[in-house]
Structures are given as C-alpha cells and as structure tokens.
Input
Amino acid sequence: MSSPQHSVVLGAGLMGRLLAHSLARRGHRVEVHEALGPDAQGAAARVAAAMLAPLAESAITELPVVRMGQHALTRWPELIGQLEQPVFFQQNGTLIVWHRQDAGEAQRFEQLLARTHTQLPSLPASQSLDTPSLAACEPALDGRFQRALYLPEEGQLDNRQLLAALLDSLHTHGVALHWQSPKSPSDFAPGTPGQPDWVFDCRGLGARSDWTQLRGVRGEVVRLHAPEVMLLRPTRLIHPRYPIYIAPKEDHVFVIGATEIETEDLSPASVRSTLELLSAAYTVHSGFAEARILEINTQARPTLADNLPAVRCLSPRCVQLNGLYRHGFLIAPAMLDVALEWVEHQSTELAAKFALKFEHV
Output
C-alpha cells in the first residue's frame, strides 16, 4: 500500500487554507508554514468584504476574472458544505444605486455591464429598476433613489467565519500547522528523497522575493454595527470620486469600503478617506448615522502588473498562486481547482477555460 502524498503549503491566508483543506480531504499529508499566527492578521482576506460579484466587478476588471467569479458562485456552496463550522453565505444578488447628479456615471457603468453580458451570455444580465421595483427589491431604500440596477445571482460570504472554519477543518484533518515559520520554495526540493511531493506557495505579498512583479494595493475598510439599517444584499454606490460598496453581514454588521491606493503602507486609515467612506454610506441610508464603528482596517492586496492573477510552476511540483488583488474570494475557488487539476493530471484544461495565466519558469 503506497504512502499518501506529502504536500507543503506556504501561507495560511485564504488561498493557503483553502488549498490545504482540499488536499487533506484528498488524502494528502499536509503541512502549512505561516510567517505569522493562526488569526490571519497578516492576510488580506481577513479585511475583505468577500463579495461574489462577477458582473459588478466586470466594470473594472477583465473577462478572466469574470469567468472565474462565475465559477465561484456554484463552487462556494460546495466548499462551504464540506466544513463543520457554519459560514454565512448569501446569494441575493447585488444592487447598484446612484444619486441623480451621477446618472451619467451610472449610464456608463450600465453600458460596461451590457458589454460583459454580450461577451459572456451565460452570466445573468443586469435588470433596471424604477422607483416602485426598487422599493420592492430593497425596502430599506424606498424613496431614497429613483433608479437602480439589480444583478441577479451574485452573492457574498462571511470572510472571518470562513477563515475560522477552514482552520478548524485543518485541525480535524490532522494538518501540521507551523506558525511563525516563514519558508520559501527554495527551502524545499519537492519530488526528491526526504522532501515533500508538492510545494504550493500561497504567501501573497510574502512571495515578493521570489516573484518580483508583485506589488501591494492598499485598501481601507470600515466595519459598522447599524441596527437601524436592514439591507438584504450587497449594495454599491456609483460616484465619480468615491464609489463604495456596503456588504451586510449577520447581526446588522456592515462592511464598507472602496479605497484603493498604490502603496503597501499599512498605517491607519486617514481621516479624509474614512470621512468619505462614512459620508457616502450615510447618503445611501441615513440609519448609518447612529451606527457604531467596530473597526477601521487597512490591508495591502497582492497584485501583479496587469491586475490579474497567475499560477507559476517553478518546477513541475512547486506551484505558486498569487496576484488575487481585490478579487480573492471571487476567484479563489477557480485558482484552487486549477491547482487540484494540476496535481491530479500534471496538466490543466481549467486554466485555458478561465484564460488564467499559467506559466512555467
């Protein structure tokens, strides 16, 4: 009887935990090395809103990300169903709103979505809502906006519940977890005697020494507790200067963000950007005026030069997955399935299907 394959995963953020969990379920003996601790404080995923909105994101990204996001909408329920701990998952669509003076921006946005639907007809088209239909769709916004767009089938999940549930799964499956243990691919020679069979580098910005094209893009996110606000789905406000998203989680917790700054600076959020975020949220619903600020977080998202993700094979058994940018939860299932397909067959049709960059270096 052959011994199980031995896989080492570097990094315990979203991609690292998801891959370690999936490999362990497939019978691999898995080890995880993480430079920090189990609380995922250094991971961009801990700060994210975890929205699953391929059509909405198509206004600012390219078709490979949209294709991978469409894959995620069916894949996330399967992945969450494998976990023992509960994870909030919702698929109530996305709502896009704007104020009257920004109707021109909204028209441009709608045209971008229509172009995406033409290129990818399997993605549900956006639906235009007038005032009565908006009130029926999102009663909390009755009378606040004259028009809106509804993007069906889009969703969201709770990022921190997922990270915790994945960690619980790693414990359950006997994964060896090495905290405060920074490693790089050069520390291993996979496939040689006494070494792991596979090494997967999921370190995000921690991989910059090996992947010099990586850079950080700063994001600033506010978490609020707003008992007076009852939104049924993620809502995005179109604005020429500070477009925002509002993602309602359980128990009247809301994740609000939008800021993107080309820097890896992780100092606290500025007064200006925080005021802009909160002011914009207040214009969506006045109930945010009495909300309590739970957290104001900053994080740098790992980003490649073209803002698109990529997979690199440093050798046939040493695989790097990186560049998830602001789309981590949207595209992680697709990245996962490409990696699993490579392990199974040493080839991947999924990468071509998604138009995901898959390189051998």
Remarks:
- The CA atoms of residues 53 and 154 lie 5 Å apart.
- The two ends are 34 Å apart (CA to CA).
- The domain at 94-152+215-303 is CATH 3.30.9.10 (D-Amino Acid Oxidase; Chain A, domain 2).
